[in-house]
Amino acid sequence: MTGEPATRRPAPPPLPARWVDMRPVLAVGTSLWFLAFCGLLIARYGYHVATGIWLPTCLAGWILGIVGTGVMYWQRSAARRGSRGAQVMEN
Q: What is the Cα–Cα distance from 56 to 40, expressed in whole angstroms?
C-alpha cells in the first residue's frame, strides 16, 4: 500500500429498457398458465380424462400470475409517486 487512493471503476451502463421490462414476461407466463388450465379443463370435463394435480396447479399458476401483475403495477405506481418503501425504477 503506497497510500494512493483506490481508483473506482465506472458504473456499468444501464440495461436496455426491453430487457428490464417485466410486462411481456408476466403476460406470456400468465397466458400460458391460462391456456394450460383451459386445455386441462376441457380434457377433464369434455373427454373425461383424469388430470390429477395438473388442473389445480395450472389454476394456481394463472391466479398467481394475475396477483404478480397487480403487485408489479402497484410497485411501479408507488415508485412513480416517490414512496419511501418502493423499489427504484431504472427506466
A: 10
Q: How many Cβ atoms sit within 10 Å of the Cβ of residue 58? A: 21
Distance CA 61, CA 73 (A): 18
Structural contact between residues 40 and 54, judged by C-beta atoms closer than 8 angstroms: yes
Domain positions in the chain: 23-79
Put simply, whether the predicted model's pTM sits higher than 0.85 gets the answer: no
Angstrom distance (rounded) from CA 22 to CA 89? 12
CA neighbor of 31 nearest in space, from 58, 8, 50 = 58
Angle in degrees, 0-180, between the axes of helices 54-81 and 23-46, rounded to the nearest 10? 160
pLDDT in tens, 56-74: 999 999 999 999 999 989 8
What DSSP string runs through 12-49?
Answer: PPPPPHHHH--HHHHHHHHHHHHHHHHHHHHHHHHS--
